[in-house]
Amino acid sequence: MSERVERNGQLATLAATVLQPGFVGTVPPAWIRRWLGDGLGSVVLFSRNIVDPNQVAALTAALRAERPDVIVAIDEEAGDVTRVESGRGSSRPGNLALGAVDDPALTEEVARDLGEELAAVGITLNYAPDVDVNSNPDNPVIGVRSFGADAPLVARHTTAWVRGLQAGGVAACAKHFPGHGDTRVDSHHALPRIDADRARLHAVELAPFRAAVAAGVQAVMTGHLLVPALDPDLPATLSDRILGGLLREELGFEGVVVTDAVEMRAVSGRYGLAGAAVRALAAGADAICVGGEHADEETARHLRDAIVDAVVAGELPEERLAEAAKRVGQLAAWTVAARATGTRTVRAGAGSTIGLAAARLAVRVTTADPTADRVPLVAPAHVVEFQPPHNIAIGSETPWGVAAPLAALVPGTTSVRYAENSVPVDPAAGAVGRPLVLVVRDLHRHAWMRDAVDRALAVRPDAVVVELGVPALVTGAVHIATHGATRAAGRAAAELLAGGPVSPSW
Question: How is 15-71 classified by DSSP, letter by letter?
């Protein structure tokens, strides 16, 4: 009896090591503190855990007081998907903007700047960069999170971003393996299917992951994707052929394989939370990300106990669980060594200067009539912003737009924002006698938005269109593309409309 109890206790410790749960609150709850003492290897922070840099630094210090080598992860893409700046919007431009500039040295500098900022507040693993090749412009969940639609471009910026972030002291995590770019389905809701053959996959989807591995990326995140050319039956997260055969053996990756959140419907809908976690570990994953939605001790206990039960029942080899825990430990050791180098200074909420500079460089202006002189604006404008359906990967609390930064630069600017069900017959009605600015996100993906913009341009052909998403559809006499909807992108567009940069920093 005592031997069985002891073995189960050892298995429970191993199971806790491979979990990466989230939690609620801006200080570590009692259960997280207790679990860190009982073997929990990692935690992941979300925007709900963040108030300001000093608070995050105190939070991570409290976690480290319970376990000095705890891995503290975050999903900070430094673009439209931001956690550390979720309340204001990212002060960096995001991947598509960096790809539009196409200066790998700049990308590396932006990523290093981010790494230093995260390291200063005690974060040690970042679920970034997104290295998907966004070859499908109708992709509902990747879009501006990708460096672009060209595989070699994505690969070279992947290399730069990984090197920069890790030089800044934070482990990078390339995602979403083997590539989420060519999909029309959001894996938060259902299981996407990619029907490309192996030759296409190796030439396109896998090229950035090979680059990430060559750059020394510490972690790779799986995508909940069905790729029949690689495995006709199982999504990548649950496939030994993809995680073991392809990622480990063919690509030679030796770091930590972390799952995308196991509560996402693409895997939990069929297998349940516990079933997905156990199958992922058996397939070759080393860490289970959970807690975006189920951020409580009951869920963590359910997963830990399910992993132990699977080992006891022979469904999950103990050696595989031990191997996963060992890899997590190796990553933890890397993060401890990274933290031991350099001097870290917590930034008191200041925006990224290099981020704003990069966002300015990413702005592209297209004019249908080269003789037209509509930028900068000659008077305070009326700004109409069209709000698309919410992308669940992007925090609903994260602000976006051009109206607010333009109003700060040009007093008298007015604005309105319309969702699909609130657009009036004449969206330009509030701009009589004034310049009109139409702000869109992924105009090409939303028929209602295109119709509204067409109606506005029919009345006001002089309107300026600002695209904060993927600029796949260029329309209007003057079209401004920022390649992202971050705070930095909105500021860069507003400066252009107002007459140019007003200061070198925030």
Answer: HHHTEEE--SSSS--HHHHHHHHTT--EEEE-GGG-S-HHHHHHHHHHHHHH-TT-E
